């Protein structure tokens, strides 16, 4: 008999059982424990588990928050929605129950290795139903699935049957790194970009230090984080200092932070997850006063490419922002979709209309190009 249950902590699910559902994932059980311990404001964590009798067969992370409908909007569209929010406070803010995670790269259903692939659609159906029931218990009408791979037919079919609407979400950027040197990578880019990057590299650059512990520089790291967050067009969560220290401590050799120094001043940091298969860029924070003179974003990019080359890591996963630069830098993009449904028919119909205007590709031409590529 198949049953489902929702938990408030991932510790309710055995580490080995969760990781068996996500073999090889960098964002594994320990990652979610570190996120829980960080106590990120305005988020309540949920974990969905599906059982066949007593055996765990599927899991998914979920969360509850208040969501602004224009979170993925940028540029002129963002300026319009901010004016609307000032005129009508709270009009774009709804309580949300979402399968997925605000701090993970993508959403997926974790299926136990012993379960045949043919049963995956059925288990996704049970996860959706478990999410709906859990949301109802909290009095939440809006249920969503965040950042599902666009090419996953099981999620798309299950969400459609369950009455969910769909829209494009932010695509994920990745760079294949088959190169023997940074110079070989630069040679793969268009002439104008290659020339520009080589010019930038001729100027003196900051000193780079790779760390697995940043406790002694944590105030400076958080200053850079806040400075970067204030300039961001797209933002969802606000990370406390305990997130950065917790990830480095809990994931041990699978997390590292690159520190960028000009003399004795910390001017940038980059938290990454890594294993022998990929390097995932989790957050890049930098000082706006130094960024222009030292080309910190591009230096960080080339530093990560060089790290992948030196350690034979074949893929650099570089997140969901900065699409104009990433198109120039040779990235490919993986499409993501968002599915949502409000149990109130009137609100659900209104959201169907609103989504036509708050799609992320409406306001950012580079993002639209990245989405079209997928």
Automatic annotation (TrEMBL):
SUPFAM superfamilies: Acyl-CoA N-acyltransferases (Nat) (SSF55729). One of its GO terms (molecular function) is acyltransferase activity. It comes from the Bacteria. It holds the Pfam family Acetyltransf_6. The keyword Acyltransferase applies. Residues 193-319 form the BioF2-like acetyltransferase domain. Keywords: Acyltransferase, Transferase. This is Predicted N-acyltransferase. It comes from Pseudomonas antarctica.
């Amino acid at each position: 008999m198949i049953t489902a249950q929702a938990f408030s902590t991932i510790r309710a699910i055995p580490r080995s059982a969760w990781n068996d559902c996500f073999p090889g994932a960098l964002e594994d059980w320990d990652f979610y424990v570190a996120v829980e311990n960080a106590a990120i404001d305005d988020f309540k964590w949920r974990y969905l588990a599906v059982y066949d009798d007593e055996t765990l067969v599927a899991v998914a992370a979920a969360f509850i928050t208040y969501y602004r409908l224009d979170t993925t909007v940028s540029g002129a569209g963002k300026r319009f929605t901010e004016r609307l929010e000032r005129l009508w406070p709270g009009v774009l803010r709804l309580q949300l129950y979402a399968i997925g995670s605000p701090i993970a790269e993508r959403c997926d259903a974790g299926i136990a290795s012993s379960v045949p692939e043919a049963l995956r659609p059925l288990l996704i159906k049970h996860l959706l139903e478990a999410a709906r029931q859990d949301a109802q218990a909290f009095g939440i009408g809006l249920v969503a699935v965040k950042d599902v791979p666009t090419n996953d037919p099981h999620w798309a079919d299950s969400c459609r049957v369950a009455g969910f609407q769909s829209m494009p979400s932010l695509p994920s950027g990745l760079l294949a790194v088959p190169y023997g040197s940074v110079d070989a990578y630069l040679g793969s880019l268009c002439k104008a970009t290659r020339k520009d990057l080589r010019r930038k590299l001729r100027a003196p650059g900051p000193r780079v230090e790779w760390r697995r512990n940043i406790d002694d520089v944590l105030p400076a790291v958080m200053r850079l984080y806040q400075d970067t967050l204030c300039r961001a067009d797209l933002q969802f969560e606000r990370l406390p200092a305990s997130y950065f220290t917790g990830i480095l401590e809990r994931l041990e050799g699978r997390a590292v932070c690159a520190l960028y120094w000009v003399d004795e001043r910390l001017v940038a940091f980059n938290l990454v997850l890594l294993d022998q298969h990929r390097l995932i860029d989790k957050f890049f924070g930098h000082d706006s006063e130094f960024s222009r003179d030292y080309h910190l974003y591009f230096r960080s990019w080339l530093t990560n490419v060089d790290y992948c080359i030196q350690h034979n890591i074949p893929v650099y996963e570089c997140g969901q922002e900065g699409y104009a630069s990433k198109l120039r830098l040779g990235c490919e993009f993986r499409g993501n979709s968002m599915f949502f449904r409000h149990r109130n028919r009137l609100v659900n119909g209104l959201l169907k209309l609103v989504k036509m205007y708050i799609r992320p590709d409406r306001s950012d031409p580079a993002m639209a190009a990245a989405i079209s590529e997928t």
